[in-house]
């Protein structure tokens, strides 16, 4: 039997009309860019949800090398809506890496489930889409190489090719596994300014590919030790 969602659907429509803007009020000091914090996302929707009888829950699921987050909306009638499970790989296999991945996953899962998007707080939201496209085309894409001067590339496809090329060169190099892993992680960290310009799905694809490369290097290292 299909569970009824008529009550929560009606309440959610009312709540969505009351959502506040998700403002880019947090600043990344390393890249000098603004972004919407998890607190900002929750603040934008929580009062409206609660005022319409909806509770917000974000649960985690087991996941190797990353985190899985599910945003769940529970109505006072007992009806439930879920935004599905979002998986985000951890760029670092430590507490900091998993913590960052969890915050990132919670933020984007919440925005996707509630249908909110970041809104500039400096008036840039009023800029036409055509102007934004022209600005991106003129600025190009920067490929950052740890310890070297950055390369200014003409388009995102060239950047993607360069990222993959250098990553594979590191994987196939004569460096020891620890150095390979360190440099693969550093490449992701250095290119965060460009990764942050890409659509979320593309960004996570590249972070995921790099996590796979790192795991493959670890796997080969373990095989060598065992042999």
Q: Could you outline the blueprint of secondary structure elements for this entry?
A:
Elements (H helix, E strand, L loop, with lengths): L5 H12 L4 E2 L2 E3 L4 E3 L2 H14 L2 E8 L4 E10 L4 E10 L5 H20 L3 E2 L9 H11 L1 E3 L7 E3 L2 H16 L5 H14 L1 H4 L4 H27 L1
Parallel strand pairs: 1-7
Antiparallel strand pairs: 2-3, 4-5, 5-6, 8-9
Helix pairs in contact: 1-2, 2-3, 5-6, 6-8
Short description:
The chain has 227 residues and is an alpha+beta fold.
Kindly list the characteristics that best describe this protein.
9 strands, 2 domains, elongated, alpha+beta, two-stranded parallel sheet, 227 residues
Can you offer a commentary on this structure?
The chain is of the alpha+beta class and 227 residues long. The protein folds into 2 domains: 120 residues, no CATH class; 94 residues, no CATH class. It contains 8 helices and 9 strands. A hairpin with a 4-residue loop joins strand 2 and strand 3. The radius of gyration is 21 Å and the shape is elongated. About 11% of the residues have low confidence.
Helix content: 40-55%
Number of strands: 9
Q: What about the largest sheet?
A: 3 strands, antiparallel
Give the radius of gyration.
21 Å
Strand content: 15-25%
Helices, by number, come to 8
**Could you spell the SSE succession in H and E letters?**
HEEEHEEEHEHEEHHHH
Low-confidence sequence ranges: 28-32, 119-138
Distance between the termini: 55 Å
Sheet with the most strands: spatial strand order? 4-5-6
* Average of pLDDT: 80
